[in-house]
Amino acid sequence: IRSQARIIHWVNRLFSHVFPARANTSRGAVPYADSDPFKPPLDGPAVSIDVFEGESGRLLEAEQVANKVLEARALNPTAGIAVLVRGRGHL
After folding, report:
1. What mean pLDDT is reported for the chain?
2. How much is the pTM?
3. Tally of domains within the chain
């Protein structure tokens, strides 16, 4: 669930360090504003980062994504699943 507390807290921690502390209109820079979770935290890790490099990594990445989708479906067959990608060319 993307609005659960563990994910929101992770995003807040990460982006509070990435965005500037103050707005700079000439550069189009805006400060990050923390979000509030709408759902309580779920058990287990909320975020995982898997790094794949090079051409051989593309197939490994696709397999990893497919496996994670299958695992999520096994845990909750009626839940919605979204896979975010840079663009259609990355599907």
Report:
1. 89
2. 0.66
3. 2
Full domain range(s) for residue 19: 1-42
Q: Provide the H-helix boundaries in 1-91.
A: 5-18, 54-75
| CB of 8 closer than 8 Å to CB of 42 | no
Residue pair 52/64 in contact by the 8 Å Cβ criterion: yes
Structure-token pair, residue 68: 């994670």
pLDDT at 1 (0 to 100):
64
30 shares its domain with 54: no
Residue 19: what residue type? F
State whether 28 and 58 are in the same domain.
Answer: no
Q: 52 — phi, psi (to 5°)?
A: -130, 130
Residues 64 and 34 in one domain: no
